[in-house]
Amino acid sequence: MKIEGKEYRTIWFERNIVKIIDQTKLPHQFIIKELKTVKDAINSIKTMEVRGAPLIGGTAAYGLVLAIQENNDTKFIKKSSEELIDSRPTAINLKWAIDRMLKTISGINSDQILDIALNEAKEICDEDEKFCENIGINGLKIIEEIYNKKKDTVNILTHCNAGWLATINWGTATSPIYHAHKKGIPVHVWVDETRPRNQGANLTSYELNEEEIPNTIITDNTGGILMQRNEVDMCIVGTDRTLSNGDVCNKIGTYLKALAAHDNNVPFYVALPSSTIDWEIKDAKDIPIEERNSEELSHIEGVDENNKIKRVLIYPYKSKAMNLAFDVTPAKYVTGLITERGITEASFDGLKKLFK
Ligand code: MRU
């Protein structure tokens, strides 16, 4: 998608170097960063220069390519794979991407391994872009249906950033929105700010602005009253891991938005590529929920009057804070899952029909 009129993907490989858009600097600075070693890739995932389930999967795949470039010894590849998987625990795409890479390079001799790994990493990213495009084509039908009934702007609420910046391109939750906009359907997006890191305000609103899609940032607590006032036609969110029973793990606060949607009969959709489905874990309690540094709550970053990025403390300095990064929305609150193969109910049978 576009930034200042120029088309980008979120990650690409150029002359033995992986290039990414540093998302910690957005929306105030647009910086392309180079990752030269597997340690760079791990650091980039940990510090959230790259984030969003599909993008960290793509970064892990390229991270393994960087590892092989440094040293194609089996032990080093194994250690690097483990470190990449451990770099963020909740999004399943990380492990999914590394498992796929390891399967592809298994048994390949050392003079071919780098080329084969590089091809597979590219394939993972190309496939994600295609899958996200298909999510958009499938999700467009829901927006179109609402528009045909309403004959007025469709108001869509989203949480966190499940936009193109969280994937390779198109996004998951935003792809149906981009497709609707391209088709001339009037859409307006309520963007949950998404504390503590403000991915909604800093990333979703930013990317929608760049594509000229009307949007309004709201605090995370505003969605409820907007739904009571009939100002939300549907919600679409992304996911970091969806269990085969349809339970959806996503950015903290998603569950509360789903409850509000349920209470107000607002359709609540989750958009995901199949790489985000966890077929193994059966009980949501077993999903590893990332707990991040409490300084993400107690400190906030912005630009001052001289356009300089500043970080300030906003809590009483003696206060403790707790920073769980994800929650789980039970399948019963999910109207449907929008995938690359179609829309299905959030249940084992629904997912099985499409994917097994
Ligand atoms: O902590 P983040 O910013 O990586 O969390 C991202 C989300 O929760 C997204 O909604 C999810 O990864 C889906 S991305 C298409």
Examine the secondary-structure arrangement and name the CATH architecture of the largest domain: 3-Layer(aba) Sandwich
Beta-strand share of residues: 15-25%
Strand order of the largest sheet: 8-7-6-9-12-17-18
The N- to C-terminal Cα distance equals 32 Å
**What is the typical, i.e. mean, pLDDT?**
97
> What structural class results from the helix and strand content?
alpha/beta
CATH topology descriptor of the largest domain: Rossmann fold
User: How many helices?
Assistant: 11
How many distinct beta strands?
18
Give a quick rundown of the structure.
The protein has 11 helices and 18 strands.
Structure description:
This protein is of the alpha/beta class. The chain folds into 2 domains: 2-127, Four Helix Bundle (Hemerythrin (Met), subunit A); 135-354, Translation initiation factor eif-2b, domain 2 (Rossmann fold), CATH 3.40.50.10470. Helices cover 39% and strands 20% of the residues. It has 11 helices and 18 strands. The protein has helices at 38-46, 53-70, 74-86, 93-105, 113-150, 175-182, 199-210, 223-228, 254-263, 295-298, 348-355, and strands spanning 2-3, 6-7, 11-14, 17-21, 32-35, 154-158, 187-192, 215-218, 234-237, 241-243, 248-251, 268-271, 277-278, 299-303, 309-313, 326-329, 336-339, 342-344. The chain has a 7-stranded mixed beta sheet with strand order 8-7-6-9-12-17-18, sandwiched between helices. It has a 4-stranded mixed beta sheet with strand order 13-10-11-16, with helices on one face. It has a 3-stranded antiparallel beta sheet with strand order 3-4-5. A hairpin with a 2-residue loop joins strand 3 and strand 4 (17-21). Helix 2 (53-70) packs antiparallel against helix 3, helix 2 (53-70) runs parallel beside helix 4 and helix 4 packs antiparallel against helix 5 (113-150). It is globular. The chain binds 5-S-methyl-1-O-phosphono-5-thio-D-ribulose. 5-S-methyl-1-O-phosphono-5-thio-D-ribulose is lined by residues 51-54, 91, 160, 162, 166-167, 172, 199, 238-240, 250-251, 325.
